[in-house]
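Hi everyone,

Forwarding the result from last night's run.
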Amino acid sequence: MSAITVDRVTKTFATPDGKKTAVRDVSFSLDEGSLTVIGGENGSGKSVLMSIIAGLETATAGTVSACGKAGLVFQEADTQILGETPREDVSFGPKNQKKSKEAVAQAVQSALEQVGLTAKADFPARFLSGGEKRRLAVACMLAMDLPIIIFDEPYANLDVGGVRQVNALIRQLKAQHKTVVILTHELEKCLGLADRFIVLFRGEKVFDGSPQEGLAQPLEQWNIRNPLARYDSVADLVW
């Protein structure tokens, strides 16, 4: 069964010079419980497309349907923090769903446990690490039982430990049969987790297939570095 169906979606913005098309005639369908990596250079249309799927933007043309509400984890996770502490932050969603006080407390506790933030439940949220802030954003979605979770450039500004934290959480979400979408140009950090690989270039879908098939494509022509590039000497360690 499809979790997300995108049918010929186009998004155009007005600019001082006329109009700019950020996404052009994009279609695909993602299965429930699947993990998809959508790659593309900055400005390729990834974030705009996912904002449309999450209901934050309206398509100029085309339609999007989903099996439930999608939660979007922004690149700048700080912008999603509303509470002073993780416990307070996670409670906003279930409270807005009009759950009882007991149900809110249970949902918050369960979500914090799932993302490994129980020990910091009452810690100042602004002092969490980058990886912890992304985990907190996911906890907010788990507390609302959202079936679809979209990560927008989840590895930005993270060290190796932070990347591993995020990937451990992504594996956990997939094991829970959540539908997960990762938007990134850093394929080397997550493509091995994916069932499906889609590439956007200048607003258009230019590849859609398996990760293995995608690595055989001329990714460099879409301004994406192939993660299978070899590093045999110090001289190779430059882009």
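The chain has a mean pLDDT of 93.

Cheers,
N.
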